[in-house]
Design brief:
- Helices cover about 55% and strands about 0% of the residues.
- It is an all-alpha fold.
- It has a domain of about 55 residues.
- Helix 1 crosses helix 3 and helix 2 crosses helix 3.
- The relative contact order is 0.15.
């Protein structure tokens, strides 16, 4: 669980910003503009702090929730028609 004690923004805004930065690899200034278009005005330095503070915790939560896939299988190379 990610703890947001002392945060001045809603938890959803912080989660959305950190996820968006990690998932789409945009700059902090671009992310600030994206959030400003949605009505949330955040400085790029604040976004940097959020990502540094919450990204590792978010990764661990997502890894726990990620569904396990089937084992890897491959066809023998002799069965592949050339």
């Amino acid at each position: 669980m990610v703890l947001f004690k002392g945060a001045h923004f809603p938890n959803d805004v912080i989660l959305h910003a950190a996820f968006f930065y990690v998932r789409y690899a945009v700059s902090y200034r671009d992310l600030g503009e994206i959030l400003a278009e949605r009505g949330v005005h955040v400085d790029h330095a604040t976004l940097n702090l959020w990502v540094a503070k919450y990204a590792s915790a978010l990764v661990s939560v997502v890894q726990k929730r990620k569904a396990h896939t089937a084992p890897l299988w491959r066809l023998p190379s002799a069965d592949i028609a050339a």
